Amino acid sequence: MTLTRRGAAVWARIDRPGAGNACSAAVMAGLEEWLAAAADPGVRVLVLTGTGRSFCAGADLNEATALLGDLPALLSWLDRGRRLVRAVMSAGVPTIAAVNGAAFGGGLELLLACDVAVAADTARIGDGHLAAGQVPGWGSSVLLPLAVGPALARRLLVAGETWTGTDAARRGLVSEAVPAADLDRHVDALAERIAALDEAAVRRTLRVARPVIAADAWDREWRTLSEHIAALATGSE
Fold first, then answer.
1. H or E segment at 218?
2. Could you tell me which residues come within 8 angstroms of residue 181 by beta carbon, excluding any fewer than 6 positions away?
3. What is the pLDDT of residue 68?
């Protein structure tokens, strides 16, 4: 993970291209550091992106699988990612996902947690949990219906579809799709535009513009994931 200050924005770039920028414990630590940067009064925007052909392929399944013999440790590892997604949703400054490439599983959930998402037109976006024999746990079952409506959300969750950045923009999952070569420059301009606005007004607008999620929606998803993981760990399915 690399953190870069660009004007009033702090960019976090997940830098594990050989692993699809999967969300490992080290990446989670980097994302926590990125979120903490919002405490600096000179930071007005946080931007998240990836290196190479991936935005984020989701949770690091190698790390997760290594913990299957220690169920409490595995659930704690997964809960760290879940809390991180929710922390992005309550960041003290606006957050932008610059979706440069593949975004699946936890990568989709990080995208959904950001206030604004801009995708490369060639990006590939999907839920992907079922393809790995998993179920959502970091928010996609809760946040996707808010982004694209229940019908399209179920289609993306259950049918295993992959959308291009252009598809995602047309369906409201991201705000717009731009040529891949222009993505960073486009997001830089967007961050500058946000940073030029009245800081207090932006902060108060975030308070009313961000979705209010009922606690039982988060809890239902987490209970389902916990049951699924426990069944896998004990071989009871």
1. helix 215-234
2. none
3. 86
pLDDT value at residue 160: 87
Backbone phi, then psi, for 7, in 5-degree steps? 65, -125
Sheet holding 54-56, edge to edge: 54-56, 102-103, 124-125, 163-164
d(CA 25, CA 2): 15
In this predicted structure, what is the pLDDT of residue 237?
A: 60
The per-residue DSSP string of 59-113 comes to B-HHHHHHTTT-HHHHHHHHHHHHHHHHHHHT-SS-EEEEE-SEE-THHHHHHHH
> Residue 201's CB: how many other CB atoms inside 10 A?
9
Q: What is the pLDDT of residue 122?
A: 97
Q: H-helix or E-strand containing 1?
A: none
Supply the DSSP string of 171-191, one letter for each residue: TTSSSEEE-GGGHHHHHHHHH
Delimit the domains of the chain by residue range. Answer: 2-181
Instruction: Give the DSSP H or E segment for 193.
Output: helix 183-195
| Per-residue pLDDT reduced to its tens digit, 15-39 | 999 999 999 999 999 999 999 999 9
The confidence score (pLDDT) of residue 236 equals 65
Q: Which residues of the chain have pLDDT under 70?
A: 236-237
Cα distances (angstroms) measured from residue 22 to each of 25, 28, 54, 179: 10, 10, 9, 24
Domain 2-181 in CATH 3.30.360.10: no
Q: For residues 172 and 169, what is the distance between their CA atoms, to the nearest angstrom?
A: 5
